[in-house]
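Priority: medium. Attachment 1 of 2:
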């Protein structure tokens, strides 16, 4: 009850302040200035009320948000020609070009079919805790990371259908092309029970042509990989998860790691290295498996 009274008191104070400013304006400002002032306030009010903002979080519960990843690639490819004032630039030894992304809390404007869209990368620092995952959090990964990220996309609400049905699919398509153009395979490791975002570009440039393996066995493996890579729609149609497993065993030095690298280079899939000796609880293993993207080894 006291909170309701406090809210009413604040509202009454704001109303009184507005009336006081209006009274001062009527007493001291010329009519032309008053008209301009009120019309400007009305325009700003109408502009703000007609805007809509879409929030794109990095994770959906425990799963990586595909739209966030695509947005990151798409905007990074457009930052050099954008209105952004702060950019992050990086390059690995194997990459031929620089990678650019928006810096924390930076904004940029994009135009699609004469529609102006405003992007902003929001980064929030959070206390790092690996001991407990808050079940009430929509983003469960927040408990395992020191920073929570999301993009905000704002535009005039009359363009909502265009953004949802045309623009966002356009972002996904362009991001896929950017990723394929990079043509690099990355290696991810575990840090504090989650995948380390600071990946390493795999320098293993050899292909199956360089692999010392029985030619018939090599052909069989390549054929099986190609069938799997091109069979995503088939897996979906028959109701199966698009996954393929290979069990490699043998003493150290017999080429198991090399074969994995050859497969990753052939498929252009990133490698996620998981050492089971570092896993203490089954929930940690489940978390890592769920947050691993489908196009990985």
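Attachment 2 of 2:
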């Amino acid at each position: 009850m006291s909170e309701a009274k406090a809210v009413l008191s604040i509202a009454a104070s704001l109303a009184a302040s507005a009336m006081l400013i209006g009274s001062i304006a009527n007493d001291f400002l010329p009519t032309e200035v008053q008209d301009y002032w009120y019309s400007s306030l009305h325009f700003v009010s109408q502009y703000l009320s007609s805007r809509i903002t879409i929030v794109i979080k990095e994770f959906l519960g425990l799963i990586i948000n595909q739209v966030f990843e695509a947005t990151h690639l798409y905007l990074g490819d457009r930052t050099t020609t954008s209105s952004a004032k702060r950019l992050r630039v990086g390059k690995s030894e194997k990459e031929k070009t620089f990678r650019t992304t928006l810096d924390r809390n930076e904004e940029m404007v994009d135009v699609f079919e004469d529609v102006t869209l405003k992007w902003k990368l929001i980064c929030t620092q959070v206390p790092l805790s690996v001991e407990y995952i808050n079940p009430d959090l929509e983003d469960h990964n927040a408990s395992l990371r020191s920073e929570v990220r999301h993009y905000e996309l704002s535009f005039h609400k009359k363009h909502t259908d265009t953004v949802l049905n045309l623009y966002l699919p356009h972002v996904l398509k362009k991001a896929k092309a950017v990723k394929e153009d990079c043509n690099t395979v990355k290696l991810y490791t575990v840090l504090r029970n989650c995948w380390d975002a600071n990946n390493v570009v795999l320098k293993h440039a050899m292909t199956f042509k360089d692999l010392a393996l029985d030619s018939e066995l090599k052909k069989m493996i390549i054929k099986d990989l190609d069938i799997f890579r091109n069979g995503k729609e088939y897996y979906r149609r028959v109701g199966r998860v698009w996954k393929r497993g290979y069990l490699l065993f043998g003493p150290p030095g017999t080429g198991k790691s090399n074969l994995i690298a050859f497969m990753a280079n052939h498929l252009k899939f990133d490698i996620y290295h998981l050492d089971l000796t570092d896993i203490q609880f089954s929930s940690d293993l489940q978390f890592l498996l769920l947050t691993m993207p489908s196009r990985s080894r």
